[in-house]
Amino acid sequence: MGVLFQAFYWNCPSQENQDGAWWNFLAGKIPELQQAGFTALWLPPACKAANLGGPSMGYDPYDYFDLGDFNQKGRTKTWFGNQAELVSLINAAHTANMQVYADLVLDHNNGGDAQEVNPIDGETRWTKFNPASGQFPRNWEHFHPSRYETFDGMTFGDMPDLCHRNPKVYGEIVSLAQWMIETIGFDGFRFDFVKGYAPWMVKAIAELRYLNKSEQGFYPFCVGECWDGERTIDDWLGTINSFMDNPVSAFDFPLHYRLKGLCDTYGFSLRTLATPGTVVQDTPSQAVTFVDNHDTIRDPGNAINSDKLLAYSFILSHEGYPSVFWMDWYNFRLAKTGTPNGIAALVAAHEQHAGGTTQVLYADDNLYVMQRTGAGAQSGLVYVLNNLGDAWNGAMVQTQWQGVQLVPVAYGGHDASRPDSKTTSADGHADFWASPRGWAVYAPQL
């Protein structure tokens, strides 16, 4: 499916001195990202936010149809720019053969212009919205508690919770999705906090046939943030994707926490990586795998804090749709472009070799060896992960290639030395190695 690049992090316009200019700043990065092999960008929420206490990352939406052109909520531009700059960024990405995904926050709103009493429960809330765009004005009837729906899932803080069963809300959200794809130019959506509203809302957006792309009836890529365990995510995917023409994906949070165990804890058993319980194990075609994101990185209890390249080597060699986080590529300097030892080499290996199904060839507490069988132009690969902290480690395994040389194309760890190339025997056997607390990706020379 390619490799996704998460093109932001929390407070990035401030941290990078790009207040109101993030779209232009990001556009300048596209040649580098295209050269590295990335195939899609995930952008932060683009609409005007409540901006309570200063500029906002957009996860508190106020006016969905103001992308930075109306003077409201303390500023005209969003923290990232305006609509023209966003469209220019998307066009530049498309010229570079990269898709662009919007972050949609549909559970809640914030920054209401006036308080109202909801007659259903008699409580007063900030539910009167008079957006300057003139589109999707809202009052208490558009939020929970609602006459249209009793169940309200989860709430997000004290922000008013949209009621999607209200026909007006449903219609406006569908119109918003159409506008973002058919007018603004997005290719798909990341859905924030999907546990807060019913799966059928995501299904409706995913199934809608959009009309201004090169193919009539274009279906967007859709991925949900269901921050929970494997069972809850599987249930969510199953509910949405039954009788579905455009299956929706989910971020693989269970895998993230397994990889955190690998990178951050002593004595983690690599056997765990071969057992069920992650999205990529259960439904690999619907798994978006990641190492960290804008939320996890802000809490050491959720972030991966050590030996992070071990985790990247795993997601960029296995099935699923891998996502690379801006801070890891740029701020933490893990790209290591021009070397075989960083994310850049792993992205290249993914695009050239990581095709076909996954077959675990060997797994014990400290060694994991896997092969991808290859598909189309992607040759397949052998991946080795070593959890020993003080020694090289390897094993003799039987691959699918007979009498073929496999060379290391990406490798690293506590010893960045290049592993030896290997030539398989007539029945496919060879021994493959990785350095201490390291990894190696071998590619067949066919």
How would you portray this structure in words?
The protein has about 450 residues and is of the alpha/beta class. It has two domains: about 5-250, Glycosidases (TIM Barrel), CATH 3.20.20.80; about 360-445, Immunoglobulin-like. Helices cover about 25% and strands about 20% of the residues. Strands 1-2-5-8-9-10-11-12 form an eight-stranded parallel barrel. It has a six-stranded antiparallel sheet with strand order 13-14-15-20-17-18.
The number of domains is 2
The CATH topology of the largest domain: TIM Barrel
Within CATH, the superfamily of the largest domain carries the name Glycosidases
Straight-line N-to-C gap: 23 Å
Amount of beta strand: 15-25%
* Estimated radius of gyration: 23 Å
Largest sheet: 8 strands, parallel, barrel
Strand order, main sheet: write it out. 1-2-5-8-9-10-11-12
